[in-house]
Design brief:
- This protein has 10 helices and no strands.
- The chain is an all-alpha fold and 166 residues long.
- The protein has 2 domains: 1-74, Tetratricopeptide repeat domain (Serine Threonine Protein Phosphatase 5, Tetratricopeptide repeat), CATH 1.25.40; 91-166, Serine Threonine Protein Phosphatase 5, Tetratricopeptide repeat, CATH 1.25.40.10.
- The protein starts with a helix and ends with a helix.
- The relative contact order is 0.07.
- TPR repeats lie at residues 25-58, 59-92, 93-126, 127-160.
- It comes from Lacipirellula limnantheis.
């Protein structure tokens, strides 16, 4: 079975699960993942929103919806969802990392650096966070701090770091 066929089957299976158990928030989240993998972000957002309606304290659903908003370049909505996820689960390095990416895309580098720093504090081996924070330092014309982050990324994982530094 190919990827596209598997995604279609997943959507069908989760849709059936939702018919059988319409209050199962996880089924909406998983179907949302499937829509997201097809780049059908509006459908993914609708499913994540339903999951949030059913379980408003599910930080992961906010992160997922934030990612879909980010993919649609609706950064303020993504930032709001990542912020809610952080409020619910303050130790989620991924939420800080993703929110940092949105701040960087909005060229709000100081806020991005703050979020990447927190992501690194929570996950000190996050090569992407070092690379992205380094790019923000460089955008702020602080090459010394940028180089320190790039060097740390390379130290942690030379092959992966090169991918993000180009």
């Amino acid at each position: 079975m190919g990827f596209e066929t598997g995604v279609r089957q997943g959507i069908a299976d989760y849709s059936k699960a939702i018919q059988l158990a319409p209050n199962d928030a996880d089924a909406y989240v998983y179907r949302g993942y499937s829509w997201e993998s097809k780049r059908e972000y509006d459908k993914a957002i609708a499913d994540y929103s339903k999951a949030i309606q059913l379980h408003p304290n599910d930080a992961a659903a906010y992160v997922c919806r934030g990612y879909s908003w980010d993919s649609k370049r609706e950064y303020d909505k993504a930032i709001a969802d990542y912020s809610k996820a952080i409020q619910l689960h303050p130790n989620d390095a991924n939420a800080y990392f993703n929110r940092g990416n949105c701040w960087a895309k909005k060229t709000e580098y100081a806020k991005a650096i703050t979020d990447f720093s927190e992501a690194i504090r929570l996950d000190p081996n996050n090569v992407e966070a070092y690379c992205n924070r380094g790019h923000c330092w460089r955008a702020k014309h602080d090459q010394e701090k940028a180089n320190a982050d790039f060097n740390e990324a390379i130290r942690l994982n030379p092959k992966l770091a090169v991918r993000f530094l180009n």
